[in-house]
Amino acid sequence: PGYSFDLDGLTVGAGIETRFTPNISGKLEYRYVDYDENTLIGGEVDEDLFLRLYNDTSLQTIRAVVSYRFGTPTADFSPVPVANWTGLRIGGGGGYGHINHELSFDVEGDNVASLSGFTGEGGLFTVEAGYDYQFSDKFVAGIQFDYTGSSISTDVDIDVRPAFDFAGSYSLEASDNYTVAGRFGYLATPDTLVYGLIGWTWTDF
Description:
Blueprint (H helix, E strand, L loop, with lengths): L5 E14 L4 E12 L2 E9 L2 E21 L17 E21 L2 E25 L4 E21 L7 E23 L2 E13 L1
């Protein structure tokens, strides 16, 4: 049997981007996503007993992206305050991700057990579109939307034989990720941007 659910959460990150030519740039970026809790099992057993089993998930990724920039105002990297980072960009790339699940069990609102260490990993690919604005000779702000497909999967093998006649496996994959984010960066050189990122991610599991 299979099932699916959606989670969303705050995304923060940091990266460095370098212009190889006036229109081509490459970046290396780290992201951390802290998802909302999701209830796996919950409800009243009777009038005096309420039970809840829930999952707290976080995702870390690192990705490399190559972008094409449209309408670059300058053909060189002059140090004068010209907005040569201003404009629309599109890009694509790939990377690696690691996910962690923490299961918790509550009885009448009190936590009685927590189990961390259900982890998974896998590859990813990403496509993105964004717009940057250079508002001084040192600072750039931008907004972007991206889609990330991944094979980041948590796999668990279950075998309780011979005590019980049961064996099986469980797999949970973070398959489709959508992020809207803003970024703010400092130009360490006219062609190298160091930036921080904050946004929101929606993921299909």
